[in-house]
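Researcher: We're teaching a course module on how sequence relates to structure. For the next exercise, students receive a sequence and then see the predicted structure as C-alpha cells, so they can try to spot secondary structure elements on their own. Here is the exercise chain.
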Amino acid sequence: MTRKVFALALAVLLMILQSALFSFLPIEFSKPDVGVPYVIYATFFLSPADGLITAFLVGFSQEILSVGPHGALLFTKVFLFLSCIFLRSRLYIESQYLFASISSAFVLLESVLFVALAFFGKGEAGTIMTVLKFCVPDAVVTGILALFLFPVFERLKLRPYGVA
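Model: And here is the predicted structure for the students to work with:
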C-alpha cells in the first residue's frame, strides 16, 4: 500500500516538475506526457480500481497545472483508462519496450481525442495541424520516458492486492 502511495506521489511530483521545468527550458517541440505511463501501468499490472484512481489523480493534477479547456485532460485520462480496461484481457505487456510502444500509441490516441474534442465541441479546425505537428515528437519522448519508468515500477514491485 505504501509503495502505491509512493508511486502516485512520484507521479504528481513528476507532473509538477514537468510543468515547472519545461516552461523555462527552450524545448518547444516535444514535451513528454508523464501521466500516460502511470495510468497504463496501474491499469494493466494492478487492479482496475487502482487504474481508475490513478487516472483521476493524474488527470485532475494535470487539470490544475494546465491552462487547457476545463475537463479535457481529465476526460482523456479516463478515456485512456477505459481503453486500457478494454485491452487488458487482449494484450500482454511483457517487456519495457512494448510498454514504451503502448505509451507512445496512447499519447497519439490522446492527441487525436483532443483534436476531436476541439472540432466537435467548438468547431475549431485551425488547431488540428498544430496538434498533429506536435503529437508525434511528444509520443516519441513519452515512449523514451516510459522505457525508464517501467524498471522503476518493477523495482518498487507494485503488485495487485493479495499478491505477494
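Model: If you want an answer key for the exercise: Helices lie at 2-24, 35-45, 48-65, 72-88, 96-122, 128-156. The first helix runs from residue 2 to 24.
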